[in-house]
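Lab meeting, item 3. Inverse folding demo.
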């Protein structure tokens, strides 16, 4: 990866080849070989070439560097800069001006500066929509990147600061039992929609026989939600899933099946689950 203007001025490449050659423009002025995978990590490294020395990757971008689920290729890179700086960044970079100490920033060993885990968690919770923030925090807690006790202590320390109310809301909703962002998003949408909180990764056991581990469950109403991601389109996996869900249905559980397309309309998802819970409540 390289800054195009630098490569041209140093005679390493012509401007014609830069624009017509086998390169992809990652961010304005930054290019990479077309064979390099186009993901958020590439965009983060492009931003690192442009941002001031005092700046660091932050928010979801820092969380991705730390191992949390990464934003998509088209999603902006989040960069935090000390409040006095006025750097705006190119298109595709979201700049957040804030105060942070030396202890809030770490270097990954390759020159990539990003916020430390606790500071990253705070910024994700404060800056991102609630569902997105919870999904990132669920992953960081599950991986052990941060601990709930440390987050609670940080919240007490920063109580009253801007964004602290939103951070508390995210921390209250976080649950490391959720194993994927879609599970977290649906769970949070249900709670924010006024439904009882579901149990993530619930083991369904009937008469001492284990039937399945499901994504989300309301055991009292015997309702489960199963999210079917891309791996579910595999022929063998489809057969296994259908057999597993058939066992649940045969045992009296109502199964709500969701696909990736359903996540574009979470209000509709919540309405489906609400109807399922209401149907079962009338039978109790």
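The presenter then showed the designed sequence:
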């Amino acid at each position: 990866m390289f800054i195009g203007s630098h490569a041209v001025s140093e005679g390493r490449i012509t401007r014609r080849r830069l624009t017509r050659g086998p390169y992809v423009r990652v961010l304005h002025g930054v290019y990479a070989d077309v064979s390099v995978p186009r993901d958020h990590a590439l965009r983060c490294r492009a931003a690192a070439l442009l941002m001031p020395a005092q700046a660091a990757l932050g928010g979801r971008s820092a969380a991705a560097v730390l191992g949390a689920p990464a934003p998509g290729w088209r999603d902006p890179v989040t960069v935090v800069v000390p409040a006095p700086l006025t750097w705006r960044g190119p298109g595709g970079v979201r700049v957040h001006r804030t105060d942070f100490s030396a202890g809030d920033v770490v270097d990954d060993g390759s020159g990539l500066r990003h916020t430390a885990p606790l500071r990253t968690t705070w910024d994700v919770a404060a800056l991102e929509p609630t569902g997105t923030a919870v999904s990132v925090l669920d992953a960081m807690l599950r991986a052990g990147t941060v601990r709930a006790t440390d987050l609670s202590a940080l919240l007490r320390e920063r109580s009253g600061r801007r964004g602290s109310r939103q951070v508390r809301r995210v921390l209250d909703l976080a649950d490391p039992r959720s194993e994927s962002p879609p599970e977290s998003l649906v769970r949070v949408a249900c709670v924010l929609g006024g439904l009882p909180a579901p149990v993530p990764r619930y083991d369904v056991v009937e008469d001492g026989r284990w039937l399945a581990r499901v994504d989300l469950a309301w055991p009292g109403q015997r309702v489960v939600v199963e999210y079917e991601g891309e791996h579910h389109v595999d022929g063998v996996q489809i057969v296994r899933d259908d057999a597993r869900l058939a066992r649940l249905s045969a045992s009296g559980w109502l199964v709500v099946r969701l696909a990736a397309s359903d996540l574009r309309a979470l209000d509709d998802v919540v309405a489906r689950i609400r109807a399922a819970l209401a149907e079962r409540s009338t039978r109790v």
